[in-house]
Write a structure and sequence with these properties.
Blueprint (H helix, E strand, L loop, with lengths): L1 E2 L3 E13 L2 E10 L13 H5 L14 E8 L5 E12 L2 H13 L14 E10 L4 H17 L5 H10 L1 E2 L6 E4 L7 E4 L12 H9 L1 H12 L3 E6 L2 H14 L8 E3 L16 E6 L12 E5 L4 E3 L13 H13 L20 H19 L7 E5 L5 E4 L1 H8 L5 H8 L1 H10 L3 E2 L3 H8 L1 H7 L3 H19 L15 H5 L12 H17 L10 E2 L6 H4 L11 H15 L3 H14 L3 H13 L6 E3 L1 H16 L9 H9 L2 E6 L2 E4 L13 H23 L2 H7 L1 E2 L5 E2 L3 H11 L5 H30 L8 H6 L17 H11 L8 H21 L4 H31 L19 E11 L18 E8 L2 E8 L9 E6 L3 E7 L9 E9 L3 E8 L4 H15 L8 H4 L13 H23 L16 H10 L21 H13 L2 H6 L17 E4 L15 E4 L4 H7 L10 E5 L6 E5 L4 H8 L14 H15 L2 H5 L78 H5 L8 H7 L24 E6 L14 E6 L4 H15 ...
Parallel strand pairs: 10-12, 10-13, 11-12, 19-20, 34-37, 35-36, 35-37
Antiparallel strand pairs: 1-7, 2-3, 2-6, 4-5, 5-6, 8-9, 13-14, 15-16, 17-18, 20-21, 22-23, 24-25, 24-30, 25-26, 26-27, 28-29, 29-30, 31-32, 33-34, 38-39, 38-44, 39-40, 40-41, 42-43, 43-44
Helix pairs in contact: 3-4, 4-17, 5-6, 5-7, 5-9, 8-9, 9-15, 19-20, 19-21, 20-22, 21-23, 24-27, 27-30, 27-31, 29-30, 29-31, 30-31, 44-45, 46-47, 46-50, 47-48, 47-50, 50-51
Length: about 1900
């Protein structure tokens, strides 16, 4: 029974006391005056009566009622029902108020004086029960009695209210009356454990909606702060009540204030979670709360701040809950689309709906917590049950360890309360217990079917409704309300009277006395054993993968263990890798623990060394995949085993397995130890009671379950039984049991202190690895418990200060272990009620236990060192390059697999990784060499290496290996050669050694100066830091620069080229010099014969070599080849040369990053250059670097303009006719400079010097007479038109789509093949489609797109009258820089603004590319797949951009406009674009010499910052690796893929360059400019070191040397077309990922250091010879991807033939000739044989064999669009024009052959139309002749379509082929020489071709076939 009301309080406005101008409330009266003992009077009620503040108002307001909730210090809730009404103040009271206002008048000058003011007064009932309606009625009645002046005294009513007693629960109805003629019924709930919600839950869902309430629900459970806003106080209370109701069975245990007064708003910034309601009036003050979820009840919104992450329910629970809720709240939704919806589909009444919603949440909790009772540990039964929850096991069995929501809920306070309340096994049960125990099966079966779920929900709702309303509603309420008149009249009412407290007190005393005398009401509480429900194992469907549980795997594990214990070690070794793989699965791990358990006898199992090793390895592997919480209990089952398995080390010294399995996180987790401890204690206590019970009880202890099986009684059941019996036991029995339990716990605590010291103290106590890494000292326990550590602190301190021992080495280890164990012991002992004496005893014991254990370990450690080491694989030495030296000798490591699958055996094939071996650090590389751990491939050698210079990232990792006992630490090393090494140091490697390895590595990676790199230190002594101290070295370094300066001065005075001191003073022999240069074709293989150069006698011979190098180096020969000027002085320079070589920069004074010799317009003096260069960034002004041989357009390069120069330069209309009026002279100079370039173009001088539109002609482009009449094709038709001229090889054009006719025109397409003469013009995809068109001049785009733009001068826009204007010079500039300029339409240059990729983008993109190609760990996430990562890296997009711009420039140059590329600083993107343009436009650069020259000229001489971008020294370390050059090589690779026959070098050549660009093996790609190279004396050094000929300093020399030896770099398909301009496709879909990024050769490391390969091969041969013992050799060779080097193991056919040839020559003892000579011979003989062919047939037959038909090379003839006219006229109908152009049989021409393919698959070596003279008197007829070398015959057909052969001439019968003469009836208009006769043994054939040349070809062809025969 409980009082309905504890206190009645009257609270009024305090007129005497106003704080800071705000009104206050005060308690006028309260009854009873004294506090009740069981419930003290809550403080601060006056604040809650008026939450928005006490204020006087000018008008009377309606009476209001709400219930506030206050929580006292014992977490008890007090419900304060406040009834507020308003009373008028009389005049004396008003004066007080006025006086108060007047005091503040100076603050508030305008105080409004009202004639009448009203003050609030509140009547408050304080109760422990929540009966809102009853309180509303009672207080309303009191008010009515007062207002209507009823006869009943107020004291009686209040006295009755305070003495009314009602039951708390039980479902009874109580009728109460307050003695004023009223009557009301109070309905108690049947079970007060279930919350009473009325309709508040349904209201909450109506206000906020399903999703919002679910968010709030999850937020409340995961302990977030929740704030409700509403303008209604009662709604706030209801919403809070509703939220608490749906959390049942969890109880909210944090701050809960449904109505918070405005004065207490600072409570909202408390750090703890809360549920609080605040009036919307204070909304503005809640805005700055950053971590509070705000629910606005009136607006229906929930606002979640950005920083708050709410974990939602796990799927599919969330979805199912939402569905169920929407079926309750909106049942019509389901049928809303039906044609005939059911009639009555209205939702239930609000009260019923409320219960249905709560039922859904009950159902949800039953699913969340199902089986929770199986994870309870009972650790004490008497005197009180103590229960702990095993969280890890629960999550593990539910497979929800990853679930954020459940983790947080289980860690929360609410769940802790749930365990302590519902854990006890013997107590009263409720609806939830029944649901979890008995309905789990039903829930599981129905969860997928919403309708069944709804039926269940309705059943539950009924029970909930019954609980609140057990009887039908009774209409017995009778409560008076105030009469209408009294409410409406505003007369001056009497204020609420002061009550007579004596009278009220009498009522109370009387009632108390009566209660005392009456007998106590004892309600028998029905306690029972709480059912546990089905165990978890049966419930949860494990979604582990099938593989993990396959029986075969378990069998392997069992067999292996059997072999180990039967001592069949060889068998065990074979199975080991499979076992270690199987142990990834959970069932296999469980199986392992079970199997091992069977081999333990009396807690001990002594093994020999090898058995011990294997068992430990398996244990480590098993533990490795355990998480720190050990959710599957694997570590728990292994714990007893690691203290059981041991081996004898020596006399009395035993090593246990635990000393070898310590490296796992799980041992440092406090929660694991607690769970283990509690589970053991439970078992012991269970055993205790099993023993003590008598025999008759013993028989009951095994109960029978339903199926008749006997099952063991569970600990909880046992505890319930004991709790039931407890009251019946005698005192002695009770104390005895308590003591027994206590001592059981105590003994377990000692046992665990030992166990923990076993696993936490490392074998070698000097190495404090484990504790350091896991931060053991700071691990806090996060178990569900409220107990604080009582004595832990003090005891630990006393131990630290006063303990008996202080061992210097191990004290820190010992201390931290002792502290950890102390904390554990404190926690578990306090929770399990161990007495303080026992606890103190434990604290004194622990240090001794630890110390004792340390001593034992020392002995074990000493002995274990003496053990013969385990047979580890022998360390293999790597082969080194000449000049490469070891810096650190091999350290034993394990190479761990990374994210690439190939080597791990995941994609099939044996697992090559992990491998065991050693890591070597040399001056050049980092090398791992070892053998795979898997015994099946143990004989293979695994090598992984990369140059130190390419290291990009090194980070420490900690690795637990499956294979061996420990691995202490690891490193992950990533290299930009797309290599990743994850290594784990073996335990024999000391950690300081590993540290010194890292330091050495770092020192080598980032030397102080570039001279510290391998390219400079190679071949010198092995010191790490080298300074060139040798005499002769210094000489060449210092004197060179001196000589340069000296000679330069002399040179200037004599007007000849400064940097070329070999040039004589006068230049009479200029032509002589030039011819020498021409003779000495740029060949690098031959040393230049120095004596041949005519040098003036004034230069000392020591300088001569250097000087000749200057000329060679300065790429002069290339300039001469291009006709860009010669070396001459001003007197003899021919005036008509448009350009000259300037020496202005010979001292690098103009621009340090440019070469010394530059090409500039003829008429620009050097002095101008000094001024111009200032306008450009880094002084890199525009210079010419290439000239188009046909159109004579030039390509210039420069940096971007300085910001100040841009606007002044481009803003003015720069028409050449008017002189721009600009003060700034540099800008004028600039303009002159550009004008000079333009005037140097032949097209400019031809167009009569005036740039008028009509005057612009393009005669220099018209290569055939026929095209004169045609309009020049627009630049927008990016493809040249095939104009049908004879010079064009048929089919050059057909570079359309892959072998098809390309007629696609799309916006994003970078080039469009407009083949028809007047085809619609395609847009410029590369600029326009991709949105990079200039913002400020729309005209450019239209011009480029070839559209006629209306002319500004208003002239007629007739295309025939006006030629489209085309600028002479296009400037490719950076869009960002060129804003705001405006241009004139008559201007001669035009700016094309593009967006360039910034270097940072390249850097970041490359990082992502590396991670995509070489991931560091395997991942199954779909957004981490290779293709997704590749896309994210944007590498292909960057390639696309560069190629796009390059193709644009090629196109512009090809149409006769010059182009200046002027981007960024002129040394990154500019270099890429300029180099690619030259490569695409000029076939010379696609040869070996040309490509070398291109790189030397554009990349090295023009100062690409190799050292800086490659982060090669300590200084540039921070800038990071930016592979601009690699990007260029990748672009070349893309072009190579599309045009495989145009390049002399192979793809391997590009990879080779890419690798050595990053390797620093050669000096070629070091330093940032020629200036730097001269300073270091590197630029002109001798080609190779005389003393050490092995060491090549230049990569080019090395390539030359290799190329002479073997055809590794040569492309056999090389058959270039003359003057071919390549136009590659640049869409991303056309680009391929370079296999350089993905390849790996584990057999011998990267295949780019050839010395290594040759050495390895010779070694391999030696070992093979030794091994050959007459055993039969297999001819088969297994080739593994990622292991073998494919090109070496499976060379292509030609390489193989050349190799065989060499081998045969060697066997015959002949001197083998060079491969190139052999190859050239074959090609020439092939050519002479097939002179008739349009291409050498050798390459074509090659193409046929290599099936390259898909490549876009136009091989032979392709039929083209009919509008252009096809290159070959087919058939007899056009004989007059039919040429006898022979057609080679190639795959691409299959379209032609398909029509006349004969049944015999003949080989047509040669074919074409010949006229044949018939028999006597018959005319000449054209026939289609086919020469077939294979069948050795010449066949002829009526036409080429003909299938049937008309005749055959056997070549074996042919006697001679001679030139013939025309006879009667011969075809007219044919030259005489076109006739020839074929004499056979039978007759003479007279034949005639259309041209003499054709006849000659036919004769040669037949002749060569004859000679073949």
């Amino acid at each position: 029974m409980a009082r309905l009301a504890n206190y009645f309080v009257v609270v009024g406005y305090d007129l005497d006391n106003r704080v800071e101008g705000e009104g206050q409330g005060r308690i006028l009266q309260r009854f009873p005056e004294k506090d009740w003992e069981d419930s003290p009077f809550p403080q601060g009620i006056e604040l809650f009566c008026q939450p928005s503040g006490w204020q006087l108002v000018p008008e009377r307001q309606a009476a209001s009622f709400f219930v506030a909730v206050l929580t006292d210090i014992n977490s008890e809730r007090h419900y304060c029902a406040c009834f507020t009404f308003w009373e008028g103040l009389d005049s004396p009271q008003l004066k007080k108020v006025d006086a108060g206002d007047a005091d503040e008048a100076d603050e508030e000058p305008a105080v409004v004086q009202h004639s009448k003011l009203f003050a609030p007064k509140s009547l408050v009932v304080v109760s422990r029960l929540d009966y809102t309606e009853a309180f509303r009625n009672c207080l309303g009645l009191i008010y009515t009695v007062h207002v209507d002046g009823l006869s009943t005294p107020l004291e009686t009513v209040i006295g009755n209210l305070l003495t009314c007693v009602i039951p708390v629960a039980g479902g009874s109805q109580r009728t109460i009356t307050l003695g004023a003629g009223d009557r009301q019924v109070i309905q108690t709930p049947i079970n007060d454990a279930l919350p009473v919600s009325g309709s508040s839950v349904a209201q909450l869902f109506r206000q906020l909606g399903i999703v919002n309430v679910l968010y709030l629900f999850c937020a409340a459970l995961t302990e977030h702060k929740i704030l409700f806003l509403s303008s209604s106080y009662q709604r706030l209370t209801d919403a809070c009540r509703g939220l608490l109701a749906i959390m049942f069975p969890l109880k909210y245990s944090f701050t809960y204030v449904p109505i918070l007064p405005g004065k207490l708003l600072e409570v909202l910034s408390t750090p703890t979670p809360f549920i609080i309601g605040v009036n919307s009036f204070f909304r503005s003050e809640t805005q700055e709360l950053l971590d509070v979820i705000i629910a606005d009840l009136d607006g229906g919104t929930v606002t979640i701040p950005e920083c708050v992450h709410i974990s939602l329910l796990p799927e599919p629970l969330l979805q199912q809950t939402q569905t169920a809720l929407s079926m309750v709240l909106d049942p019509e939704l389901e049928f809303s689309d039906q044609a005939f919806p059911p009639q009555s589909m209205n939702p239930s009444a609000l009260k019923i709906q409320d219960k249905e919603i709560r039922a859904v949440f009950l159902w949800l909790f039953a699913r969340l917590f199902q089986g929770y009772r199986w994870c309870l540990h009972i650790i004490r039964i008497h005197p009180e049950p103590v229960i702990r929850f095993h969280k890890a096991a629960f999550l593990g069995q539910r497979s929800l360890t990853e679930d954020d929501f459940l983790m947080k809920v289980l860690d929360g306070m609410a769940f802790a309360g749930f365990v302590s309340e519902r854990g006890p096994p013997y107590r009263a049960t409720d609806l939830f217990d029944d649901l979890v125990a008995n309905q789990v099966e039903r829930i599981r079966q129905e969860e997928a079917c919403p309708h069944k779920v709804m039926n269940h929900v309705k059943e539950l709702a009924e029970q909930l409704f019954k609980n609140e309303n057990p009887y039908p509603a009774v209409a017995m309420h009778k409560v008076q309300r105030p009469s209408e008149t009294s409410q409406s009249t505003d007369q001056s009412r009497t204020p609420f009277p002061v009550l007579d407290d004596v009278a009220v007190q009498l009522f109370i005393d009387h009632a108390v006395a009566k209660l005392k005398s009456s007998p106590p009401v004892v309600k028998a509480e029905l306690k029972s054993m709480v059912p546990s429900g089905p165990p978890l194992g049966d419930i949860v469907d494990r979604n582990g993968n099938v593989m993990a549980n396959s029986a075969r795997r378990l069998e392997v594990v069992r067999n292996c263990i059997t072999y180990i214990f039967d001592n069949k070690m060889l068998e065990a070794k074979k199975l080991m890798p499979a076992v270690l793989r199987a142990l990834k699965g959970r069932t296999a791990r469980v199986c392992l623990t079970q199997e091992l358990n069977q081999h333990v006898l009396q807690n001990r199992a002594v093994l020999d060394d090898q058995q011990f090793d294997y068992i430990v390895r398996m244990m480590n592997c098993t533990l490795q995949d355990c998480s720190h919480m050990d959710e599957h209990g694997i570590a728990a089952t292994l714990l007893p085993l690691v203290t059981a398995f041991c081996r004898k080390l020596g006399a009395g010294i035993t090593q246990f397995a635990y000393s070898c399995v310590q490296e796992h996180m799980v041992w440092t987790t406090m929660q694991f130890w607690e769970a283990m401890f509690y589970s053991d204690v439970q078992n012991h206590i269970k055993a205790l009671y099993m023993e003590t019970d008598d025999g008759n009880q013993q028989s009951n202890s095994d109960q029978q379950d339903g199926s008749g099986n006997r099952r063991e009684i569970s600990a909880l059941e046992l505890a319930a039984e004991q709790n039931r019996l407890w009251p019946t036991l005698s005192k002695e029995m009770q104390t005895e049991r308590v003591q027994k339990e206590e001592s059981t716990v105590f003994s377990q605590a000692i046992h665990y202190a030992n166990r923990m010291s076993y696993l936490l103290l490392p074998l070698d106590t000097s190495k404090n690895r484990l504790l350091r890494s896991s931060g053991l000292g700071d691990v806090e326990s996060v178990s569900n418990s409220y107990v604080t550590n009582s004595i832990a602190g003090s005891m630990a301190e006393s131990y630290d200060t006063e303990s008996g021992f202080e061992d210097a080495e191990s004290s820190d280890v010992a201390n931290s272990v002792v502290r950890f164990i102390n904390r554990f012991v404190d926690k578990v002992c306090n929770e399990s009620g161990v007495t303080n004496e026992h606890l103190k005893a434990l604290h004194t014991m622990i240090p001794d236990i630890v110390q004792m254990h340390i001593e034992t370990l020392d002995a074990v450690h000493r002995e274990s060192k003496r053990l013969p080491p385990i047979q580890k694989p022998k360390l293999l030495r790597p082969t080194l390059l000449p000049g490469e030296e070891l810096v650190m000798d091999g350290m034993r490591v394990h190479l761990i697999p990374d994210g690439r699958d190939e080597a791990t055996g995941q994609m099939g094939g044996p697992p090559l990784l992990p491998a065991e071996g050693a890591i070597f650090l040399t001056t050049y590389r980092l090398i791992f060499k070892g053998t795979p751990s898997d015994a099946l491939v143990g004989e293979q050698i695994v090598t992984r290496s990369f140059p130190i210079a390419s290291l990009t990232k090194e980070k420490r990792i900690s690795v637990t290996l499956t294979m061996d006992q420990f691995v202490q630490e690891g490193l992950q090393l990533r290299s930009c050669t797309f290599q990743l090494m994850k290594i784990a140091f073996d335990e024999e490697v000391a950690s300081d050694l590993a540290e010194s390895f890292r330091k050495h590595l770092h020192k080598l990676r980032f030397p102080q100066h570039v001279q510290g790199t391998f390219a400079f230190t190679v071949g010198q002594t092995g010191k790490l830091v080298l300074e060139p101290k040798t005499k002769d070295k210094n000489q060449s370094l210092k004197t060179l620069s001196k000589n340069l300066v000296k000679n330069a001065k002399r040179t200037i005075s004599r007007q000849y080229v400064g940097r070329k001191k070999e040039v004589p003073a006068t230049w009479e022999n200029r032509s002589n010099f030039q011819s020498e240069l021409d003779e000495d074709e740029i060949s690098v293989s031959e040393e230049v014969d120095q004596s041949a150069l005519t040098l003036s006698s004034t230069i000392r011979s020591s300088d001569r070599q250097t000087m000749s190098n200057v000329v060679e180096r300065a790429c002069c020969r290339d300039y001469q080849r291009l006709g860009l000027g010669t070396l001459s002085n001003s007197l003899t320079r021919s005036k008509n040369e448009p350009f000259r070589i300037s020496t202005a920069n010979r001292m690098y004074t103009v621009c340090r990053s440019y070469p010394g010799l530059l090409i500039i317009p003829q008429n620009i003096p050097d002095s101008t250059i000094h001024r111009i260069c200032r306008c450009y960034r880094q002084n890199r002004f525009p210079v010419v670097c290439w000239r188009h041989s046909r159109t004579k357009a030039v390509l210039l390069r420069s940096a971007g303009l300085h910001a100040k120069g841009v606007v002044s330069f481009f803003k003015s209309p720069n028409a050449p006719t008017a002189v721009p009026s600009q003060a700034d002279s540099t800008s004028l100079e600039q303009e002159k400079y550009l004008q000079a370039i333009i005037s140097s173009m032949p097209s400019y001088s031809e167009s009569t010097g005036r740039n008028t539109l009509s005057g612009f002609t393009s005669t220099h482009m018209n290569t055939s007479e026929s095209s004169d009449k045609l309009r020049q094709p627009k630049i927008g038709d990016l493809m040249k038109q095939v104009l049908g001229n004879k010079e064009d090889v048929p089919g050059t054009f057909s570079r359309g789509a892959l072998g098809q006719k390309a007629k696609v025109i799309s916006l994003s397409q970078p080039k469009v093949s407009g083949k028809a003469r007047n085809s619609p013009r395609g847009k410029w995809g590369s600029i326009r489609g991709s949105g990079r068109l200039s913002a400020y001049n729309p005209d450019i785009g239209t011009r480029l797109a070839g559209k006629e733009s209306p002319q500004p001068n208003g002239g007629p826009n007739d295309p025939l009258f006006l030629r489209q204007q085309k600028a002479y010079l296009y400037i490719i500039g950076d869009k960002a820089q060129l804003k705001g300029g405006k241009q004139d339409s008559f201007q001669q240059w035009e700016v094309i603004p593009i967006e360039v990729c910034d270097v940072r983008q390249v850097k970041n993109s490359f990082k992502k590319l590396m991670k995509a190609c070489v991931p560091s760990s395997q991942t199954t996430e779909p957004n981490m797949s290779f293709l997704r990562l590749l896309e994210d890296s944007e590498w292909m997009t960057l390639l696309h951009r560069v190629l796009q711009v390059s193709v644009l420039v090629v196109e512009l140059l090809d149409t006769g406009s010059s182009v200046m590329v002027s981007l960024e600083d002129g040394w990154d993107v500019t270099t890429q674009v300029v180099s690619l343009v030259q490569l695409l436009s000029d076939p010379y650069y696609r040869t070996f010499d040309g490509f070398r020259l291109l790189v030397e000229k554009e990349w090295l001489s023009f100062g690409h910052r190799f050292s800086h971008r490659g982060a090669q020294t300590l200084g540039s370390q921070s800038s990071g690796f930016t592979p601009v050059f690699l990007q260029f090589l990748d672009c070349v690779h893309q072009i190579h893929l599309q045009f495989p026959m145009e390049f002399e070098f192979s793809q391997y050549y590009l990879k080779f360059l890419a690798y050595h660009y990053m390797s620093n093996r050669f000096r070629t790609f070091l330093l940032d400019s020629d200036y730097d190279r001269i300073e270091l004396g590197v630029l002109y050094e001798e080609k190779s070191d005389r003393r050490n000929p092995q060491v090549c300093k230049s990569v080019w020399d090395y390539i030359d040397r290799l190329n002479k030896k073997a055809p590794v770099f040569y492309n056999y398909m090389y058959s270039p077309e003359d003057e071919e301009v390549l136009r590659p496709y640049t869409f991303i879909s056309n680009l391929k990922v370079w296999d350089f990024y993905l390849e790996e050769t584990l057999s011998d490391g990267p295949p780019y250091d050839w010395e290594l390969r040759s050495r390895q091969e010779s070694l391999a041969e030696e070992t093979a010879e030794k091994a050959d013992t007459g055993a039969p050799k297999s001819q088969r060779h297994i080739v593994w991807p990622c292991y073998d080097n494919l090109s070496k193991v499976m060379p292509d056919a030609i390489t193989k033939l050349l190799q065989d040839l060499q081998n045969l020559e060697a066997e015959l003892g002949q001197t083998s000739e060079k491969w190139k000579d052999t190859w050239d011979k074959i090609k020439t003989t092939q050519r002479t044989e097939t002179k008739l062919e349009s291409k050498p047939s050798f390459s074509s037959s090659l193409l046929m064999s290599s099936n390259l038909s898909h490549q876009r090379r136009s091989q032979g003839v392709c039929l083209q669009d009919s509008r252009v006219g096809s290159s070959i006229k087919l058939g007899l109908d056009c004989e007059a024009s039919a040429t006898s152009t022979p057609v080679a049989g190639r795959p691409s021409t299959s379209t032609l052959y398909s029509q006349f393919q004969s049944t015999e698959s003949e080989n047509r070596s040669f074919e074409g139309i010949l006229y044949k003279r018939g028999a006597l008197l018959k005319p000449w007829k054209p026939r289609w002749f086919v020469l077939d070398k294979t069948k050795h015959e010449l066949r002829y057909y009526d036409s080429r379509q003909d299938k049937d052969c008309k005749g055959v001439i056997e070549l074996s019968d042919v006697e001679s082929v001679t030139v013939g003469t025309p006879t009667m009836g011969a075809p007219k208009n044919v030259e005489e020489k076109a006739f020839f006769d074929l004499k056979t043994s039978k007759r003479m054939y007279n034949l005639c071709a259309q041209e003499s040349s054709n006849a000659q070809l036919w004769m040669d062809s037949i002749q060569s076939s004859l000679s073949d025969a």
